[in-house]
Amino acid sequence: MELESICVFCGANPGARPQYLAAAQAFGRRVAEEGLTLVYGGGNIGLMGAVADAALEAGGRVLGIIPGFLKDKEVAHDGLSELVVTESMHQRKAQMAAHSDAFVALPGGFGTFEELFEMITWSQLHLHQKPVALLNLNGFYDPLMAQIDRAISEGFIREENRPLVTAHPDIDDLVAALKTYRHHAADRWLPAVAG
C-alpha cells in the first residue's frame, strides 16, 4: 500500500515537558515535507493544534475530523484544509480510519490511548492492514510497551501479533518504519484450546 496519509492521535493538552510540543511540531512538518496528508482530531489546542499548525505552515494538507459535541470544547481548528464534523465519536474514528494509510500516536491521555488501541485491535482482527506506531519520546510509551509484553507472557496476546504496534524514539525511525511496514497478524488471535 502506498503511503498517502497519516492519522495522528495525540493530546489536547501540551503536556508537562516542552519537548512534547516541539516533537508534535516537528512531526507535523515532516508529514507535510513527505507530501502526505495529516489526518487528526480537528482541534486547535494542545499537541493536536501544534501538529496541525506545523503541517499547514509547511504547506501540507490537513484533514480534521471532530464530533459536533466536541467542536466547541476542543475549539475546532478553523484554518484546516478540510474539517469534517461528525455526530459521534464512533463516526469520528471510522472517518479517521477510512481517510488514513497509517496511524501514529504521540504522547497523550485517555483519548489517545483509546484511539490507539482500537486501531491495534482492528489490525489484529484484519479489519485493516495499516501500520500503527508510537513516537516514544523520552520513553513515554515504555510502560505501555512493557504492559503489552506482559500480556503476551501471560497468554492474552499472541507473540505473532506483537509487531502490530511499534515504538520509535525519533521521527526518522518512525517514518521509515511506516514506509516499510508489512502486515502479518496471526490468523487467530487466541491460542487453540486443548481438548
From TrEMBL:
<keyword id="KW-0203">Cytokinin biosynthesis</keyword>
<dbReference type="InterPro" id="IPR031100">
    <property type="entry name" value="LOG_fam"/>
</dbReference>
<comment type="similarity">
    <text>Belongs to the LOG family.</text>
</comment>
<protein>
    <recommendedName>
        <fullName>Cytokinin riboside 5'-monophosphate phosphoribohydrolase</fullName>
        <ecNumber>3.2.2.n1</ecNumber>
    </recommendedName>
</protein>
<keyword id="KW-0378">Hydrolase</keyword>
<dbReference type="InterPro" id="IPR005269">
    <property type="entry name" value="LOG"/>
</dbReference>
<dbReference type="Pfam" id="PF03641">
    <property type="entry name" value="Lysine_decarbox"/>
</dbReference>
